[in-house]
Design a protein that fits this description.
single chain, about 250 residues, Rossmann fold, 3-stranded antiparallel sheet, 9 helices, about 25% strand, binds adenosine-5'-triphosphate, P-loop_NTPase, nucleotide-binding, AAA+_ATPase, ABC transporter domain-containing protein, transport
Length: about 250
Amino acid sequence: MKPVIEARGLGVEFYRSRRRKRSLREMVFKGHTGAPIDTFWALKDVSFDVRPGEAVGIVGANGGGKSTLLKMIAGVLIPDEGRVTVRGGVAPLIELTGGFLGELTARDNVYLAAGLHGLRKRDIDERYDEIVDFAGPQVAAAMDMPFRHFSSGMQVRLAFALITTLDEPIVLVDEVLAVGDRAFRERCYVRMENMLSGGRTLFLVSHSEGDLRRFAERGLYLSSGSLIADGPIDEVISQYNADADAAS
Ligand SMILES: Nc1ncnc2c1ncn2[C@@H]1O[C@H](COP(=O)(O)OP(=O)(O)OP(=O)(O)O)[C@@H](O)[C@H]1O
């Protein structure tokens, strides 16, 4: 079976400072103006394959490139080098707000976001109560409020409930579980286990070893944008911990 994700030589270059805009001359003659442009590679030469149904945990220190990698898989960031091929739809929970629009009501956001993932209004009507029930009574009572009035915990609850109700075969979860309270986290865990046993492919970014060991069988360890290790999650976590201990 073909991999669902193929990353080959992925690289992303960012500007270190937004203090100054690039001039037209710099855009045209990048690197030949004499004035150095202060950039860095948030990801550099990252290659891996992911098979359908794999559960991959991404580990690494702050700023290592984990979220940037997820954004490329989600298609919201385009690589500056290399390529990523994704076979199948992606349900990304990569920002606290799940990409929802603050001015719209929570209800309208559910219809808009689910519609963007290919669900028809009829399908959303059928799943609406389940989504809101999963998110909990506080969220259910606030569905007609603008989304920006939601607390961060409420935002995550609704976004997680929606994203995991979609039919997309690839699910990306970026460190959002930490925001929910304990009871909600437990419900999320059960849902993630169900998604995995249903054959979905999961990418999980987390600083919680417990969560990583529980859900991921394989780990990718990113440090300063480079893929340092790719292997069984326990080995990858040990390597990351050893590096962190050596650095402290
Ligand atoms: N749009 C952007 N413009 C410039 N720099 C950026 C941008 N987005 C991310 N970065 C930088 O790229 C690097 C990698 O960021 P990224 O968010 O991928 O790290 P991370 O591994 O997810 O970190 P954390 O564990 O703190 O969430 C960081 O140095 C970050 O400041």
